């Protein structure tokens, strides 16, 4: 690829994701149809199945699905530089928007009206988090063992650092599966019929955001 | 300078474990924020509210705001770089060497354990925020009851009416102005 052609591709990657980013609250799966439209239909960079694979892979990597999938697509199209261009493109608009809202908040947080608004908002945030737990819980609990890991995790979090608990969870998965295999149990790893729902706004999906 | 490095390295580590991202990372960020004395739990709850109202991932958004409130614009940039860098490292390594990552049995087993533990993290986040915002109390005052009502109605709007969280937050703010001023 010529020098000029490469810069053009990098800018197109940046711009494509720059445009998509602000419309997707919570990032994640709400982006799929938009990415398909831009990457598959308009730019013809990838095939539709490839995009689906990228989304599946993005969920297995720590971090937000939106950022991971943009970075994967960028990497596929223009290597390391492409990955950076796409990542900056997808992150910059949301960085600016959240910063503006944050500055506004820090500016007016002592206003009595704002203070009373936030008393109620804090209760709603707890509801949003509870809803996130219900949603991800549905895909996480596939059998008795996963249910036990879930229940055991909650009290442990009051004593151990959360990062340790996350690592312990991964280890628990590996140990449980290998014990089950040794004992000859049939292991169900995943919900087979789990589908990505495009209309599901999904601000906090399973392995996601 | 020290502060910027602290912000960067803290969110860099969080970036590496942010499986399930979003709301699962709240207790992780919260424990770091209170350990460093960057902000109170109540301020942090407000930060989450603003992160939820903005587009983009909640983890990155709250990292940016914690950074901004601690060290201004440079702090926001340090935190953003910290949380983003692990993703680019992971993606590059995986895209180059393990493009069939999902098919490895050990990765599948890992997620078998990670998904329920991420759920525990989110439940824990809900419990600790409810505690710090006086939603769980021994003596039921009008204040506690009203907060539980807001909680219940918000959950109903999300689950049954399928409202977007950003709408729930904005409407709840208006209710708060009426109820608590």
Describe the structure.
The complex is a heterodimer of chains A (209) and B (181). Chain A has 209 residues and is mostly helical. Chain A is built from seven helices and no strands. Chain B has 181 residues and is mostly helical. Helix content of chain B is 81%, strand content 0%. Chain B has helices at 2-17, 21-24, 26-36, 41-53, 58-97, 105-132, 142-159, 165-180. The N and C termini of chain B lie far apart (41 Å). The chains are: A mainly alpha (209), B mainly alpha (181). Chains A and B meet through helix 4, helix 5, helix 6 and helix 7 of A and helix 1, helix 2, helix 3, helix 4 and helix 5 of B. Chain B: One of its GO terms (molecular function) is chromate transmembrane transporter activity.
What Rg of chain B, in angstroms, do the CA atoms define?
18 Å
Largest sheet of chain B, if any?
none
Q: What is the overall pLDDT average of chain A?
A: 81
From the helix content, strand content and strand pairing of chain B, which structural class follows? mainly alpha
Strand content of chain A: under 5%
Q: Topology of this protein?
A:
The complex is a heterodimer of chains A (209) and B (181).
Chain A: H1 3-20, H2 32-42, H3 48-59, H4 65-108, H5 112-140, H6 144-157, H7 162-182
Chain B: H1 2-17, H2 21-24, H3 26-36, H4 41-53, H5 58-97, H6 105-132, H7 142-159, H8 165-180
